[in-house]
Each structure stands twice: as C-alpha cells, then as structure tokens.
Amino acid sequence: MIKLTTNIEEAEFITHAGNFHADDVFSTVLMERLFDNITLIRLNDYQDDGTKIAYDIGLGKFDHHGALYDKKRANGIHYCGFGLLWQEYGLKYLRKIKVEHPEKVFEIIDELLVIQIDAFDNGEYNIDAPFNIYTLAGLIEQFRPKIGKSEDENESFLKAVSFADTIFEQILNDAIGKVYAITEIEKKKKTIKDKILVLDEYIPYEYAIFKLGFDIDFVVYPSNRGCWAAHIVPTKYKGFTPKIPFKQEWAGLKDEELQKVSGIKTAHFCHKKLFLATADTKEDAIEFIYKTIRE
Fold first, then answer.
1. What is the per-residue pLDDT across 51-87, written as a single tens digit (0 to 9) for each?
2. Other residues' Cβ atoms within 10 Å of the Cβ of residue 176
3. What's the number of domains the chain is made of?
4. pLDDT digit string (tens) for 82-129?
5. What range defines the domain where residue 76 resides?
6. DSSP state, residue 118
7. Cα separation of 32 and 27, whole Å?
8. 123 CB burial (10 A radius; 0-12, 13-18, 19+)
9. In Å, how far are 1, 2, 3, 39 from 36, measured between CA atoms?
10. 206 vs 197: CA distance, rounded Å
C-alpha cells in the first residue's frame, strides 16, 4: 500500500512533484512491491542526505539529473532513477517473491522493460513512424491531470502507479515464461535440421531462439487454430523482415487454390506478407519450407 503524505518527517520515500513520468511511477511500483507499505512524499525540491530513499530527485544515489552524472550501460544508455533502483533492489525483490532463476528473470526484465524506461526518460531513443505511437512512457503520461478538468495531481499519480503495477506484473510473468522457454528450446538444439526447428508442442520461441543464438530460418509448431504452422525467423527479435520469405506465388492464397499452386496436399493458408504458412499435417507444414529453399 502507498500512503502519500505532505509531512517530510513521516515520509520514508521521496520523489518529485509536478508532471510524473514512467521513471518515478515505475520506481514507486518497485518500492511498494519490495517494502509492501510505503509512505511517500512528492516534493518540488529536495537535497538527498541519505536518510530516506529519494528517487528521480535530490541528486543522490537514485537521481540522474546531476551535472556530473554519467552512469550508463554498456550500450551507452544512461540509467534513470528506475534503472538505478532496479540495479540496487531488483534482484532482492525477485528473491523476496521466490522467483525461480531470479538472476535470469532480473536480466530479462532489465532488457525488455527497464532499459526502455531509462532510454525514454533520458531522450536516448528514436522511433520513426508516420503516425503516433503510444509508448509505455506515453501511456503513463496520459494519467496526468487534463486541462479543463478538476483532477488532483496526487490521485492521478496513484492511478498511474496502479496502471504501471499491472503492466509490471504482466512483464514479470512474461520474463518468468521466457526463462522457461529458453530452457525448453535449448533442449531442442540437437533436433535442428536444415536450419528448421520443429516443436511438437507450442512454446513461445521467439525470444528464446535469439537469446540462445540459434542459427535457424524457420520454426514449425502446432497452431492453436487446429493446424500446423511454418513460420519464418526474422532478421532480428520483434522484427518483420524474414531471413527467407516463403514463395511469392503463394502470397495470400488459401485451401484449394494454395494446394494447386504449391502442390502441398493439406495446405491451408499462406500470409500475403510471406511469413506464415499453414497445413493440416506437420509434414506438409515442413514441406512449405523445403519447397521454398530448394525450388
């Protein structure tokens, strides 16, 4: 539980007042999860003297605004308050909740969530799209009081923290799942043939194959739609460019038309972007791949 106070003597935790960001919001999520009940004050100004945990304010251990501050990752991205707190307390929190393989879960959360917040808060990112993208940082900002509405800043902050806590929980569970997937996919390494990974039951494989550095071009697995899927491997994690696309003449075709053109007896569908093809049987799903790479 978070108790907001206006009495600095009562507060154990301090962050800045005014417009909140993903940095101070997710920092508050982590502090509440680790310490359970926290008393927090939001101030316009504060000089950190080390007696309280102050983040994103105070020019202390967990603030990144000082003129001489230059603590950054190997990839050049500077830590913000949340990143600094995660380095200090993240592993302690994961051990508190008895997560299996806490070091691995810590690394994945850092890679997929914390670095993103660090980069956005420090302006060290680039998104080039011809339309608006609501990033995680941008979604947090939507909880700020709106012009023309009578909204309390602290209440809005707590709503943002509640939203961020839900997101954090999902990312935590995702990271735990990714550790499991890496373990299971690694067991399949010796079964890879012709750069094809075949899964007899579906495992979320995308992150695992890149983390493990597997040199594969296709993955075959049973689809939750009741058929077998052959899927390309992109050139990078979460990317859209396939290493090897399926054959252009299959693009967007279905059932009998696809069967006729491809010569694959139980063919169902090939996506028009050539990253996915499906069939009734595992053997025919694999056949999509061999026809692609051999013909």
1. 999 999 999 999 999 988 999 999 999 999 999 999 9
2. 19
3. 2
4. 999 999 999 999 999 999 999 999 999 999 999 999 999 999 998 888
5. 2-182
6. H
7. 9
8. exposed
9. 6, 8, 11, 10
10. 12
